[in-house]
């Protein structure tokens, strides 16, 4: 299983400045908000989009708040899920979730997430 997202940082930045904290509060959990660098917020948003693609779409009643991105090193991250999204992950037997990201000089952010599911382990 794989989920991929490519985010244009400038467009994300415009959305943040236009909508302010209300936009960030919809997509970031408390700990994710602690990093005050907008580029990291963009990376988190892109990582969540990759994860949603990996699971086949946002579950009904799920939200970005049900997904937490935790950076492991300079270019990798892990994903923790809660609520409806967590139920979806368990129902699909998704395991071994690994994420990577790259920020390009032209302002693009690429995130990829791979995972195994019960039937292909």
Automatic annotation (TrEMBL):
SUPFAM superfamilies per the UniProt record, alphabetical: 4'-phosphopantetheinyl transferase (SSF56214)
One Pfam family cited in the UniProt record for this chain: ACPS
Keywords from the UniProt entry: Transferase
Transmembrane portions of the chain: none
GO molecular function: holo-[acyl-carrier-protein] synthase activity; magnesium ion binding
Domain 4'-phosphopantetheinyl transferase: 2-88
Protein name (record): 4'-phosphopantetheinyl transferase domain-containing protein
Native species: Virgibacillus dokdonensis
Lineage: Bacteria, Bacillati, Bacillota, Bacilli, Bacillales
């Amino acid at each position: 299983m794989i989920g991929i997202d490519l985010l244009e940082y400038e467009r994300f930045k415009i959305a943040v400045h236009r909508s302010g904290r209300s936009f960030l509060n919809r997509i970031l959990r408390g700990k994710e908000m602690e990093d005050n660098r907008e580029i990291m917020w963009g990376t988190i948003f892109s990582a969540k989009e990759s994860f949603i693609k990996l699971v086949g779409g946002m579950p009904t009643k799920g939200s970005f708040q049900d997904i937490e991105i935790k950076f492991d090193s300079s270019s990798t991250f892990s994903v923790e899920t809660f609520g409806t999204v967590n139920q979806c992950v368990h129902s699909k037997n998704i395991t071994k979730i690994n994420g990577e990201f790259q920020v390009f000089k032209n302002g693009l952010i690429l995130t990829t997430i791979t995972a195994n599911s019960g039937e292909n382990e």
